């Protein structure tokens, strides 16, 4: 058949292909599309067929995969078909057929092996620097991530394909959508306690921030980080008298992802001022609760706020010393100060040891907003409940140390 079609004219070839396609949906001499030789013949002829024939054949394949598990098994078990043939479709056919090809992959995913997942990832990495394939790469990654998050594909397959190493490769891409998919992959792997522990031990979040800072910040990246930081939330209840209060508490990876997000804000603020301020305020709302504030404090939250205030103080290098930037800068400084103050306040009340007062007063950008927030909260919460009475002494002693350090610092500055 191959030889005949090569010698035949275009009209004859299309007619024969149409006949084969028509027969593929029926049983002829005991053979159907479920037979590997019939499928192989059709897909071999696919690239040289008209677009109408190509579309019809892809739809016939999709219908066959959806209705018959044996068709999926046959396709994946035959050496000349499988995932590699579908990836070939993406290269050989028009972009208008990409969605159909990816749909075929979705149907075959339940019978994929680790090697198939690795092949798809490697295909993306190989095309990563080709701008005209950016949307295709993004769609393939979304398919894999969606199937993994719904347990259609095992998380072990993602680890075997490269795991965090693959994620960092995506994070370093020039394409913003692929960098966002890299964040998605990191977050998915962090859902495993074992992987999360390994990532923390390897300073993964610090490396993640370093890689992301090499590219311009964007709201798409910030939204991806914020979404994953808040996706794992525990509802914690605390009883005070007859009243039960519930607080939404982030899981541990969420606090580290928030630090990565906050460290990207100064650069983002230069391009998207209002959006960056809005994100900072949303983070403040997330960290208002006592448990979340203390956990963020333990994850290095005060250091994060200190670095942010220093970056904002450096500003835009003199490019714009007034106007809207100064307003945005002031808003960010105020909100970051409130975040730091919230951590300090809840750290004082819950466990004085988690708040390093000496470190706090050493930074002249950090302790004034922290003190202001603590004093404001004391004024707003003048009535102390019986359940908190035992902490009053510790709070007052801690405040005394802060004020003494502030006075000593002011005195030494005046004398010098």
Automatic annotation (TrEMBL):
Gene3D superfamilies assigned: Leucine-rich Repeat Variant
InterPro entries reported in the protein's UniProt record: ARM-like
Source domain of life: Eukaryota
Protein name per UniProt: Uncharacterized protein
Naturally occurring in which organism (per UniProt): Hanusia phi
